[in-house]
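Q: How would the structure tokens look for this protein?
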Amino acid sequence: GKNTDLLNFLNQSDIEKRRRSIEIPFFTAGSYLAVTRADPHSPSGTSKFVGICIARRNKGLGSTFILRNVLNGMGVEMMYELYSPAIREIQVLKLERRRRAKLYYLRDKPAKYSTVSEKMQPVPNDGVPSVYKRKKGEPS
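A: Here is the predicted structure in token form.
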């Protein structure tokens, strides 16, 4: 009906606004990302989290993605709202995709499969995700 049209329009215009203030890069589940967000509790005013994107949900303004990493032997997952004003930067460290859309299976795998170095340097990409090369005995 009319109301949903209006809502879609408003969502769309909010997304456009957001895209103008921050570059939202293309990435897929399986990509390695670094997200910097506003953090009032940190001395620098921002905090950065590096991880592998295990899920991405595209739902207009409500789009979210989940990053996973292993810190001090503990699996840590952060869910972000793609268009949240708190996000200062989304950097694609490695554009990579897997066979599945959701990588929840990493939760049951040894830590090494989910560990991403905080110091990881971006790997140049031409906008096409490279396909993940499985290690022996690892799921697709």
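The mean pLDDT is 93.

Residues 40 and 74 are 24 Å apart (CA to CA).

Upvote if useful.
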